[in-house]
Amino acid sequence: MQTHKAKRVVITIEAVMQRRLTEALKEAGVTGWSVLPVLGGSGRSGEWSREGQIGRGTGMVQVICLIRPDRLEGLMDAAFAVVDKHIGVVSVTDCEVLRAERF
Fold first, then answer.
1. Three-state secondary structure readout of the chain
2. Lowest mean pLDDT among 18-27, 30-39, 51-60, 62-71
3. Looking at residue 7, what is its pLDDT?
4. Structural domain of residue 59, as residue ranges?
5. Domains held by the chain: number
6. What is the distance between the terminal CA atoms of the chain, rounded to a whole angstrom?
7. Residue 26 maps to which CATH number?
């Protein structure tokens, strides 16, 4: 089975910023993503969980995108414009996908 190179971008951000982020992704031409709740974690500010809310009390989400490598720069510019002034982490990894025409 043939696979195709892609990039997996995971953006962890305050849930209250999710709409602003997905709108920025749309404007950058990103056509697909998944949003998952983040149940807890640990970072610079220490451990936290949904029970011990952070920020404005809305918790965190992860927005996950799989895209073609040539579209990465536009996605990163859009994500950084939102994450730059807020709590958030962006990671990029190489991956392979089936049905490359979907990305």
1. CCCEEEEEEEEEEEHHHHHHHHHHHHHCCCCCCEEEEECEEEECCEEEECCCCCCCCCCEEEEEEEECHHHHHHHHHHHHHHHCCCCEEEEEEEEEECCHHHC
2. 51-60
3. 96
4. 4-102
5. 1
6. 17
7. 3.30.70.120
